[in-house]
Specification:
alpha/beta, elongated
């Protein structure tokens, strides 16, 4: 798991270096004229970001690949009637398909598991607040698109094998309220967004290495926050 997180940071660094290098060269008028201009457009930036996410196991990267690739095609091939203002709704369609497919992904459960052992929350253009009191919490999925959610796990006991929450934040965010003795391992891919563990230092020092919550997924133009109970 540590390697995955390190790879995410490495790819994010590569993306930022590439973007920064391009803007610097453009500002200094040092981009060679024989290079196609579309190689340094916003479409290619979307493709690079999407590729970095896919390589590190984030399927949400296909959203960026699809959007960047589609809008790049008219730059490569002659398409005289193409206008972005006509086709921008395609972005919403792609995001919608991604959300539907994400909702259809089943959470693996055993015969003994109950609904309280898993979280499955979706907030789109709105917000939600939920509380859990499971005695064997195993994780789940949290999706926030142009919205946000607050999930309270203060009365929850984590499963012996730990728990994994898969988050997807796009122009949205989530707040997780957890017991102070949980150990949180952040493995999410964050770009143009943020992740923060805002538990007090004294509380963080009480972490139990046997109670591990792993947060994976993607945070894009949004935020994911952990607070103490």
């Amino acid at each position: 798991m540590g390697n995955v997180n390190n790879n995410s940071k490495a790819w994010l660094g590569i993306v930022l270096v590439a973007m920064g290098g391009y803007f610097l060269l453009r500002n200094l008028d040092l981009i060679p004229s024989f290079l196609p201009y579309y190689l340094f457009g916003w479409e290619m930036i979307m493709i690079i970001i999407g590729g970095a996410m896919v390589v590190t196991g984030r399927r949400e990267g296909f959203i960026f690949l699809a959007i960047g690739g589609f809008f790049l095609l008219p730059e490569i091939f002659y398409w005289p009637r193409f206008r972005i203002r006509d086709w921008w709704p395609l972005v919403l369609i792609v995001i919608g398909i991604a959300i539907v497919l994400r909702r259809r992904e089943p959470v693996i459960r055993s015969a003994e598991d109950i609904d309280e052992d898993f979280v499955d929350d979706t907030s789109i253009f709105g917000g939600s607040e939920k509380s859990f009191s499971s005695k064997n919490f195993k994780g789940g999925k949290i999706t926030s698109v142009f919205g946000g959610s607050t999930i309270n796990f203060s009365e929850t006991e984590i499963a012996e094998e730990g728990a994994v929450i898969d988050v997807f934040c796009l122009f949205g965010g989530n707040e997780l309220i957890i017991p102070n003795d949980w150990t949180v391992v952040n493995e999410s891919f964050v770009i143009f967004g943020g992740y923060a563990d805002k538990r007090a230092r004294s509380a963080t020092e009480q972490n139990d290495p046997k109670k591990v919550l792993r947060i994976k997924g993607s945070v894009i133009f949004g935020g994911s926050e952990v607070k103490g109970a």
